[in-house]
Design goal:
The structure holds 2 protein chains of 2 kinds.
Chain A (H helix, E strand, L loop, with lengths): L5 H4 L15 H5 L14 E7 L5 E7 L1 H5 L3 E6 H7 L21 E2 L5 E7 L2 H8 L3 E6 L6 H5 L14 E9 L2 H7 L2 E9 L11 E7 L4 E6 L4 H12 L6 E5 L13 H14 L3 E4 L2 H6 L6 E10 L7 E9 L9 H4 L13 E9 L14 H19 L3 H8 L8 E2 L5 E2 L4 H11 L2 H13 L3 E15 L5 H4 L8 E8 L5 E5 L8 H13 L6 E3 L3 E2 L16 H28 L6 E4 L2 E4 L2 E7 H9 L14 E7 L14 E15 L6 E11 L6 H20 L31 E5 L16 H17 L9 E2 L3 H10 L4
Parallel strand pairs in A: 1-12, 8-30, 10-11, 14-15, 20-21, 28-29
Antiparallel strand pairs in A: 1-5, 2-4, 2-6, 3-5, 7-15, 8-13, 9-10, 9-12, 11-22, 13-14, 16-17, 18-27, 19-20, 19-26, 23-24, 24-25, 27-28
Chain B lengths: L7 E2 L2 E4 L2 E4 L2 E2 L4 H8 L18 E4 L2 E4 L12 E3 L9 H10 L9 H14 L5 H7 L11 H18 L1
Parallel strand pairs in B: 2-7
Antiparallel strand pairs in B: 1-4, 2-3, 5-6, 5-7
Helix pairs in contact in B: 2-5
The chains are: A alpha+beta, B alpha+beta.
Chain lengths: 803, 164
C-alpha cells in the first residue's frame, strides 16, 4: 500500500519544504499573544490545598472557617468530588482500584489536592487555604519500586492486595532459541530518574457555569481537549454539549498538558457553586508537586549476542514507578514496544512490564513517553555487547541495522518501520561528528590522562499513536489515535479558511498547514486564515484529537489535505461550469482558476464563492451550495489490538547521535566537544520548524541525562519543587548541535512526512550515557543510571562505583 | 491573617513612558502589577521564584525579573516591557528571531527579547559565549536555545554592518 502522493496533492511547489517565516511570530515579539492568563476575564480565583503528607488517612476536613471568610465564594472537598463525580477511568489498568480527582479518605502523594477554594481574587483564595483545618493520620509510605514491592510494604490502594497495577509479559519471536544460540548475554540493570519537559507556562484554566443552559464553559491550555471533554462529561454525568472546552495560545506542552482535565473537573464543581467565572493559574511549585513527571524506571535487560556479532533477542523487565494516580499508569511500559528492538534486525523481543504504585506524584506523558528510557537501556547494552566483542560500537551497530532493502520492515511485535536507510544515517553521522578523528584525539587525550569519551546512539522516533495497544491489557478497544479532522473553506470574499480538531502548543502548525494549503490551491500563506484556537463547539475533533505523539504531520496534515482536496475538486467543477471549459484544462493560481493557455478565461475564488454562497441559482443544477468541507482522515496502518501482532505507532523516523564529552576529573563536570545528529524524518514541510524541534528535543534529553531529577526522600517527600532545586539546561551550558538530514519519504503519509518532535529526547540519553562511560573507561566505571551528576561521576572515579 | 493580607500600596510606575498608578495589595509583585494594572500581558509568569526569566523587564534600564520586585518597590521608577522596547537594536532582533526560527511556543520570547536588548545595548558585539552567558537566566523549554543565540548574533552582526 502506498499513500504517499505529493504529485496528486500539491498543485504548486512554492511553499512546501521551504523555510517559510512563521505566521505565529509577530504576536510573540510584541507581547501581543494571548495565553490563558492574558485573556480578558472578570471573576474569582481558585486555589488548591494540597497534601503535605506522602501517605496519610484524612481524619477530618473542616472548611467552616474558610466559608466564613466573606471573600470566599465556594469550597469543594474530596467528599464533594466523590458525591458529584464518577471515579477516574484508567487508560490501561484493569486492577479494581477507585480514585477521584481529589483525595478521598486518604492522601497518596505530597501535593494531592485535598480542598479547592474559590474566592474573589487570587490573594483571597490563597489566604483562605490557611483557614481550612485538615486532620491527617500519617501512614507509612514508599518512594521507589523496590520498597513498594517488598512483602511488608504499606498498601497504597486499599482495594487491591499489592502495589502492582499492571503486570504482564508480551513476547514475540524465538526467545529460547536466541538464548541457546548466544555466544554471550549482556545483562544489566538500568535506572532512569523522574524528569519533565516542564512547559514554561504551567497549567491554567477558567471555568464559567451557565445555569440557564447548564453548560460548563472551560478554557484551558489543554493539549488533548478531545479526551478531556470525554473525561469531564463522563465524570460529571452530563451530555457532551454541556461542556464547552476551548484552548487559547499555549506556552508549551510536550505531553505534560495532557493531564489538566482533573483540574478542569474541580473547576466545574467550584464554578457552579460560586455562580461566577473562576480562574486557576497553577504555580510552578504546584506544577512540580502535581506530578507532571516521567515515571522513574528500573529496567533489567538481557541481550543475547551470537558469535558473529548479531544481536539475537532483547528481553526486558521494566518496572515503572507510576506514582499514585491510575489514569496514566501502565502507559510507559506498553509504549516501549514501539522501539523495543531499535533500528536492529533483532528477531525476538519480550517485555515484562510492571506498573507500580508508590507515594510519588502521578506521571504523565512526557516527550517521547517511555521510548527515551527504552532506547537508553537498549543502546547502552548494544555498546556493552560491542565492547565484549572487541568491536567498534559503530561497526557493531552497522552489522545489526535493518538494511534499506528490507523496508518496510516489521519488528517481532508487529511495529512497521516504513522507510529509511539506517546504515547510511549512521555513516553520515560518523562523518558529521568526525568520529574517526575524535577516536584519534581520544587516544592522545588518554595518553595525557584526560577523560575524553565518544558516545553513539541510534534511535527510532515513532509518530502517530495507535493507542489501541492499551486494549491489549483491557481487552476492549477504547481508543485509537490515528485520526484527525479538519474544515477547509473558501469564504465569500475568496479568503481561504482552515481549522482543525487539534491544538498548537508551539510547533508552528499554523505556518506549516498554510504552506501545504497554499501549494494545494496555488495561493500564498497570506491568503489563508488559520483558526489557531480550539473550540469544541466549532472544531472538528475526533476522540483523540490533540497535539501529541508526533501525529501532526501525519493525520492533522492528512485531514487538512483531504478537506482541501474536496474543496479543490468542487472549485474545479464549478469553474469548469462557469467558464464552459473542461476540468482537465484548468489550473489554479493567484486565488483564481484559469483555463490553461488562455489568459482571458479565468474566474477568481471570490467570484466562485459568491456563486456558491450567494448567487446559488448560477450553480450547476446538481451542485450543493457552499464551499466549506469538513473531512476526517486516518492513517490506515493502525492494526486492531492483537497480542501477537500490533503496532504501537504508525510512522518511524530515525536518527544517530554522535556525542563527544570531556570529563573533568577534579569536579566531575563535563564539557561537550561535539554534538552531531543525522536524522531522517521523511519529507520536511518546513525545515526551520523541524530543526527547531530536533534541537529542542535533544536539549530536553540532555537535561534528563545530566541535570534534571524530581528527587524524593525515602519517605516519598519531594526534594525538587522549584527551578532552584530542579535544574534545567540553560543557554550557557548546552552544546551547539550540528544537524544533518536524510529524507526517506514515508510511503504511508500523503506528503511522505514522518514523526518530528520527540527524536532528540529519545536518542540523546543513551548517546550521552555511552559517551560518559567511554570517557570513564580508564576507571572501568559503568553508567547505568540517569541523571549522570558530577557527584556520581566523582564517586565512580574515586571507587569505581557505577554511575 | 497577617498585615500583609490587608495592607495596600499606591505605586506610580512609569511603564513604557506612561505613569501607571493604582492602589494594590502591598504584597503584589511587579509582574502582576504590570499585567493587571498596566495591561502589559506580554510580561509572563513562568515560575515566580526568579529562575525562569519569562517576566524579564527593564527597570531603570537594567534587565530584572519582575517577579522578584514588589510593585511598591518600583514606584517612581521606569519600566520597559517587551512591547515598549525601543533601543536601536530592537528591530534587528525582532527580524532575526523570525529569520532564525527562534520562537516556538513564544512564552519565553518577551523575556528573551528584553534581555537580548539589554545585552546588545551594553555590548553591541558579543561573541557566542557572551550571548549564552547573558541569556542564562532565561529558560526556554522548546528551542534548546541555539536558534535564539543565533538570532541575537545575527542582530549584532547587522548592527555591526550598520555602524560601518
Amino acid at each position: 500500500m502506498t499513500i504517499y502522493a505529493p504529485d496528486r496533492v500539491l498543485a504548486a511547489s512554492n511553499w512546501v519544504g521551504r523555510r517559510a517565516p512563521r505566521k505565529e511570530d509577530a504576536r510573540h515579539l510584541y507581547g501581543r499573544a494571548r495565553f490563558l492568563d492574558d485573556l480578558p476575564f472578570e471573576g474569582g480565583a481558585i486555589a488548591i490545598l494540597r497534601s503535605p503528607h506522602p501517605h496519610a488517612r484524612i481524619v477530618s476536613v473542616d472548611t467552616s472557617r474558610a466559608l466564613a471568610d466573606p471573600r470566599v465564594l465556594a469550597v469543594v472537598t474530596g467528599e464533594d468530588v466523590r458525591r458529584e463525580t464518577s471515579p477516574v477511568a484508567s487508560r490501561s489498568v484493569t486492577a479494581p482500584v477507585t480514585q477521584y480527582v481529589m483525595a478521598v479518605d486518604k492522601v497518596r502523594w505530597v501535593g494531592e489536592p485535598v480542598v479547592a477554594i474559590a474566592a474573589v481574587d487570587m490573594f483571597a483564595a490563597k489566604d483562605a487555604l490557611d483557614l481550612v483545618d485538615v486532620e491527617y493520620e500519617p501512614l507509612p509510605s514508599v518512594a521507589d519500586v523496590d520498597a513498594a514491592l517488598a512483602g511488608d510494604a504499606p498498601l497504597i490502594y486499599d482495594d487491591i492486595d499489592s502495589n502492582v497495577l499492571v503486570h504482564d509479559e508480551i513476547a514475540h519471536g524465538p526467545m529460547a532459541q536466541a538464548f541457546d544460540d548466544a555466544a554471550f548475554v549482556v545483562r544489566e540493570t538500568y535506572r532512569v530518574g523522574r524528569f519533565s519537559s516542564t512547559p514554561l507556562e504551567p497549567y491554567a484554566l477558567t471555568v464559567a457555569y451557565d445555569a440557564n443552559n447548564e453548560v460548563y464553559d472551560v478554557v484551558a491550555n489543554d493539549q488533548q481537549p478531545a479526551r478531556s471533554i470525554g473525561n469531564i462529561t463522563k465524570a460529571l454525568g452530563v451530555p457532551t454539549a454541556n461542556v464547552r472546552l476551548s484552548v487559547p495560545e499555549s506556552g508549551g506542552s510536550f505531553g505534560i498538558k495532557l493531564a489538566i482535565w482533573p483540574y478542569a473537573l474541580i473547576g466545574c464543581l467550584l464554578a457552579k457553586r460560586a455562580g461566577r467565572p473562576l480562574k486557576w493559574i497553577q504555580t510552578r511549585t504546584e506544577h512540580m508537586l502535581g506530578g507532571t513527571h516521567t515515571p522513574d524506571v528500573k529496567m533489567e535487560m538481557e541481550l543475547p549476542v551470537g558469535a558473529d556479532g548479531k544481536i539475537l533477542a532483547m528481553r526486558l523487565r521494566s518496572k515503572e514507578n507510576d506514582g499514585a494516580f491510575i489514569h496514566t499508569a501502565g502507559i510507559y511500559g506498553l509504549i516501549k514496544f514501539a522501539t523495543a528492538v531499535g533500528p536492529y534486525t533483532i528477531g525476538a523481543a519480550s517485555i515484562d512490564l510492571m506498573s507500580v504504585v508508590t507515594n510519588r506524584g502521578p506521571v504523565v506523558q512526557n516527550r517521547g513517553v517511555g521510548k527515551p528510557a527504552m532506547t537508553f537501556a537498549l543502546e547502552r547494552s548494544v555498546d556493552r555487547a560491542a565492547r565484549r566483542l572487541g568491536m567498534d560500537p559503530a561497526e557493531f551497530r552497522l552489522r545489526n541495522m535493518v538494511p534499506p532493502e528490507a523496508m518496510p520492515y516489521t519488528t517481532p511485535a508487529g511495529e512497521i518501520y516504513e522507510s529509511g536507510d539506517y546504515p547510511e544515517t549512521m555513516r553520515r553521522a560518523l562523518e558529521l561528528g568526525r568520529y574517526r578523528e575524535f577516536r584519534e584525539k581520544q587516544a592522545v587525550a588518554r595518553a595525557e590522562g584526560r577523560l575524553l569519551g565518544i558516545g553513539l546512539s541510534a534511535g527510532i522516533e515513532p509518530g502517530t499513536s495507535n493507542i489501541g495497544y492499551y486494549s491489549l491489557l483491557k481487552g476492549t478497544t477504547d481508543y485509537n489515535g490515528s485520526s484527525e479532522g479538519a474544515v477547509v473553506g473558501i469564504e465569500v470574499d475568496g479568503q481561504v479558511t482552515v481549522r482543525t480538531g487539534s491544538v498548537d502548543t508551539g510547533q508552528g502548525h499554523e505556518t506549516t498547514i498554510c504552506q501545504v494549503v497554499a501549494d494545494m490551491l496555488g495561493i500564498t500563506p497570506e491568503d489563508i486564515s488559520f483558526d489557531t484556537f480550539f473550540d469544541s463547539t466549532r472544531s472538528p475533533y475526533t476522540g483523540q484529537s490533540g497535539a501529541y505523539s508526533n501525529r501532526f504531520n501525519d493525520v492533522e496534515v492528512g485531514a487538512v489535505i483531504t478537506a482541501t482536496e474536496r474543496v479543490r475538486a468542487k472549485v474545479r467543477t464549478l469553474a469548469a461550469y462557469l467558464l464552459e471549459a473542461k476540468e482537465e484544462d484548468l489550473v489554479l493560481g493567484d486565488r483564481a482558476v484559469h483555463v490553461a493557455g488562455d489568459a482571458s478565461r479565468s474566474v477568481a475564488f471570490g467570484e466562485l464563492a459568491k456563486v456558491a454562497y450567494n448567487k446559488v441559482v448560477l450553480l450547476p443544477p446538481d451542485m450543493e451550495p457552499g464551499l466549506r468541507v469538513m473531512a476526517y482522515y486516518r492513517n490506515p496502518m493502525a492494526k486492531p489490538p492483537d497480542r501477537g501482532d500490533f503496532n504501537v505507532q504508525l510512522t518511524h523516523s530515525n536518527s544517530v547521535h554522535v556525542v563527544v564529552v570531556e570529563v573533568d576529573k577534579g569536579t566531575g563536570m563535563l564539557d561537550f566537544l561535539k554534538y552531531a545528529i543525522v536524522h531522517d524524518c521523511g519529507r520536511q514541510l518546513n525545515p526551520a520548524v523541524v530543526e527547531g524541534m530536533a534541537i529542542g528535543s535533544t536539549v530536553h534529553g540532555i537535561g534528563g541525562a545530566l541535570l534534571e531529577e524530581f528527587q524524593y526522600d525515602d519517605a516519598a517527600n519531594p526534594l525538587a519543587t522549584s527551578f532552584q532545586t530542579y535544574l534545567k539546561p540553560v543557554a550557557q551550558t548546552v552544546p551547539r548541535i550540528e544537524l544533518g538530514h536524510l529524507e526517506s519519504p514515508c510511503p504511508y503519509t500523503l506528503l511522505g512526512t514522518k514523526a518530528t518532535g520527540e527524536g532528540g529526547s529519545i536518542t540523546s540519553l543513551a548517546a550521552i550515557g555511552n559517551a560518559v562511560e567511554d570517557a570513564l573507561s580508564p576507571y572501568g566505571v559503568q553508567v547505568n543510571s540517569l541523571p549522570i551528576t558530577p557527584e556520581k561521576i566523582l564517586r565512580g572515579i574515586r571507587d569505581g562505583a557505577p554511575v | 491573617m497577617t498585615d500583609l493580607g490587608t495592607r495596600t500600596a499606591t505605586p506610580t510606575v512609569r511603564v513604557n513612558g506612561e505613569d501607571v498608578t493604582g492602589e494594590v495589595p502591598a504584597r503584589m509583585l511587579l509582574v502582576h502589577y504590570l499585567r493587571e494594572n498596566a495591561g502589559r500581558t506580554g510580561v509572563h509568569v513562568g515560575c515566580d521564584s526568579g529562575n525562569c526569566g519569562a517576566c524579564t523587564v527593564l527597570l531603570d534600564g537594567a534587565p530584572v525579573k519582575s517577579c522578584m520586585v514588589l510593585a511598591a518597590q518600583a514606584s517612581g521608577r521606569e519600566v520597559t516591557t517587551v512591547d515598549g522596547l525601543d533601543a536601536p537594536c530592537v528591530p534587528a532582533l525582532r527580524r532575526a528571531f523570525v529569520e532564525h526560527a527562534a520562537i516556538q511556543c513564544g512564552y519565553c520570547t518577551p523575556g528573551m527579547l528584553t534581555n537580548a536588548t539589554a545585552l546588545l545595548r551594553d555590548d553591541p558585539h558579543p561573541d557566542e559565549d557572551a550571548i549564552r552567558a547573558a541569556l542564562k537566566g532565561n529558560l526556554c523549554m522548546c528551542t534548546g536555545y541555539q536558534q535564539i543565540v543565533d538570532a541575537v548574533a545575527a542582530a549584532a552582526a547587522e548592527g555591526e554592518e550598520a555602524s560601518r
